[in-house]
Amino acid sequence: MKRNSSGLSKNLLQMKFMQRSKENYENAEKAEQQRRHEQQQSSSRQQELLELCQKEGDKFLATNSFIFCENLEYGRMSFKGMNPEIEQLMRIKHSQHENDDGNESTMETKKTAKDEADVSDDEMTNVLTRRKKKRHSS
After folding, report:
1. Do both 70 and 42 map to the same domain?
2. What global pTM score does this model have?
3. pLDDT at 52
4. Which among 37, 54, 55, 86 is placed 20 to 30 Å from 18, CA to CA?
5. Which spans does this entry mark as compositional bias, Low complexity (predicted)?
């Protein structure tokens, strides 16, 4: 009797009550073969790329590392006072980045939403009070 890698004979696996085990065994075997095949393909692709890079020279560098992404801009952004909390976080991140570089003397002064506004609070209150007076007088 022939035995497979699961330790069960071929005749035993053909019995009706062992059909599920046989299917599981076959599926596992197919998955293992597919994994080996994909691994061989990926290793052959890597070899081809390495050979090509060696022939062409070092024009590009491919790595699996994310170290190059560490100095990216802050992910959430807001401008002109649309989201003051996010702008504050952006300022903090920017100041930390400048402190890390040693450019403390070039740091900008902290601006609030009031400093960035096009119209001052006094001007806005004057305009609104005039509008209210016009509405009530008509």
Report:
1. no
2. 0.28
3. 79
4. 37
5. 40-49
